[in-house]
Amino acid sequence: MCDEATSALDPQTTKSILNLIRDINRKLELTVVVITHEMQVVKDICSRVAVIENGIIAEEGSVVEIFSNPQKEITKEFISVVLSNDLPVAFRESEIKSEKSPGSLLLVRLIFIGDSADYPVLEWMIRAVEGVNVTMLFGNLDQISGIPFGRMIIGLSGDDSKVELALTFLRAQDLKMEVIGYVQRRPSTSNQSTR
Q1: What is the mean pLDDT of the chain?
Q2: Under 8 Å between Cβ of 165 and 132
Q3: What angle do CA 73, 178, 59 make, to 5 degrees?
Q4: Residue 91 and residue 174: Cα distance in Å, rounded?
Q5: Which bin fits 43, alpha (ψ -120 to 50), beta or left (φ > 0)?
Q6: What is the pTM of this model?
Q7: pLDDT tens digits for range 47-74
Q8: Which of 174-188 are b and which e, b meaning 16 or more Cβ less than 10 Å from the residue's Cβ?
Q9: What backbone phi and psi angles, to 5 degrees, belong to 41?
Q10: Domain extent listing, the chain
Q11: Distance CA 50, CA 61 (A)
Q12: Domain at 89-183, CATH homologous superfamily
């Protein structure tokens, strides 16, 4: 059992301790229980996680499951330290609506786990659905327990039928998809040249 084994350590020492714990687990085939508030530690070396709130297990499962689809607010808060789920800055203060308005984008969050993180899904979608406009707003590729884990937020616009075809295409892929809603981009305060 490791209770806060990396608390207050410098990054190099933390890495050494995590490598030691990983080696003990693999070489001696011992289960190691890690108690920590550091979600980066959980992300790096754990295979299963239990989130405890007020002495009760709020959520448990594989690290990949919990990080890719947290259900409880406490879990979302813990995970947000290492995996931001915020909208891009230009949209954070915008109201998310369920109905399209002129000039709005449909925001879609995509989560890729395992081999699907290497697939050019957006390229495939653009080729399959001509006429849909795709704006890449956020993207990140990481590893959780050694498994590739990618997250992306895109904005879709164009004819309603094309946007729906794009969503249908994305639903058929090996990924998790969340339709966030329609938002207006906040006007830029900087002077930008137009093309």
Answers
A1: 86
A2: yes
A3: 30
A4: 27
A5: alpha
A6: 0.72
A7: 899 999 999 999 999 988 888 888 899 9
A8: ebeeeeebbbeeeee
A9: -65, -45
A10: 2-80, 89-183
A11: 7
A12: ACT domain (3.30.70.260)
